[in-house]
Amino acid sequence: MTESVPDIIVSRLPVYLRALQRMSDNGITTTSSQELGEKVGISAAQIRKDLSQFGEFGKQGTGYYIPFLIDKLRAILKVDRIWDVVVIGMGDMGHAIVRYQGFSNRGFQVAMCFDSDPDKIGQQVGNFTIRDVKDLAKDVREAGVKVAMLCVPARFAQEVTDKLVESGVRGILNYAPVSLSVPESVKVQHIDPAIGLQRITYYI
Amino acid sequence: MTESVPDIIVSRLPVYLRALQRMSDNGITTTSSQELGEKVGISAAQIRKDLSQFGEFGKQGTGYYIPFLIDKLRAILKVDRIWDVVVIGMGDMGHAIVRYQGFSNRGFQVAMCFDSDPDKIGQQVGNFTIRDVKDLAKDVREAGVKVAMLCVPARFAQEVTDKLVESGVRGILNYAPVSLSVPESVKVQHIDPAIGLQRITYYI
DNA sequence: TAGATTGTTAATCGATTAACAATC
DNA sequence: TAGATTGTTAATCGATTAACAATC
């Protein structure tokens, strides 16, 4: 087994990838650790060290060839494919996520969405019909979906999480403002705007 | 000047506060570093060390009195008041944010919202009328708003950011999938669901 | 009092930076 | 070749953990 890479390094790779894709979109084909570092606010030494965990992707004297580095990072992060994602909770946030156009070129697509409200079940959101959360376990398992975005109210978040885990989901992007408990084999990332704002006001 | 507190400690305080408020809502009045740590997934020693940066908030033998600790954390994070927030970009995400009910008891309220689309300007979203982004600088400065949530497409994010900074905004919660460059005096936090998802798929 | 838990110190662990030989 | 920039090593810096006296 390969020596495991620190989480903190893994967490920076998507930021590098996003910046590289943007440069690529702008027609730029090579960059240096220096230049990339300035764009993302990270030191050049750190970027070189992070990348060197996974291979030798650059050339002395000329830096990194962007299309090649993008391919490598996509493979490392496993977004050299398209992951189906399930969205649970069709409030305003769930709606916005299902209709969001920005996932597809970054490795993800919404595959199905759920709610528990009888008035919402059967309604159309973007290209999807809202399904009954009662069918969540069955539908997720049958479709083999491994990634979920959780947009339900805080009080329902843990019970839905348990159902997702039981159905084979391996990662959850949690929009509910509450910590979730999951087995070690499941990865959770949190999005809570109020926490983001409180991390700002401390410094004002 | 007080010895400055590491960013990483500050970043954990809102997580503690959220868990404590939840416990308080459930009628619990005291907790220990052990119990709080289990809820948020952080070691008891670290919680005690983090809190001790700001004072002695607990009692040996009995732990922490939750209402007292909540008050202290609110004061430290400066959310013992309500901050006006401006939202720029009234797409699906901006809509969801303006209508979100979860800010008010955590220190924030939307004060105004903007878009550049003539079809949207003048429309109603929740209790707000969408304003013309041309008036952004003037309106923000006059109202003295210090915090912004940025929900515009990536290609407009930097120019709007520059306008916000110029108008006295000191913190930006950035939903656009791009790094922003700001003066040191301005704090930025990023929310990018695709980055969250990519931090997950690495481990699957 | 006995048990529990804090705040803090010292030890450990891990991450970042500086520097430079290698080499394109 | 001369200049630029990588990948990597060693040094520095900072964060986490373990342990325990203090004390409620």
Please provide a brief summary of the model.
With about 200 residues, chain A is α/β, with parallel strands linked by helices. Helix content of chain A is about 40%, strand content about 20%. In chain A, strands 8-5-4-9-10-11 form a 6-stranded parallel β-sheet, with helices on both faces.
Helical stretch tally of chain A: 8
Overall structural class of chain A, as computed from helix and strand content, comes to alpha/beta
Number of domains of chain A: 2
Distance between the termini of chain A: 46 Å
Shape of chain A: elongated
Secondary-structure element string of chain A: HEHHEEHEHEEEEHEHEEH
Task: Provide the residue-averaged pLDDT of chain A.
Answer: 97
Percent helix range of chain A: 40-55%
CATH class of the largest domain in chain A: Alpha Beta
CATH topology of the largest domain in chain A: Rossmann fold
Largest interface: A-B, 58 and 58 residues
The largest pleated sheet of chain A is described as: 6 strands, parallel
Strand content of chain A: 15-25%
- Based on DSSP secondary structure assignment, what is the total number of beta strands of chain A? 11
Question: CATH homologous superfamily of the largest domain in chain A?
Answer: NAD(P)-binding Rossmann-like Domain
Oligomer: homodimer
Enumerate the spans of chain A where pLDDT stays under 50 for 5 or more consecutive residues.
none
Order of strands in the sheet with the most strands of chain A? 8-5-4-9-10-11
Q: Radius of gyration of chain A from the CA trace? A: 19 Å
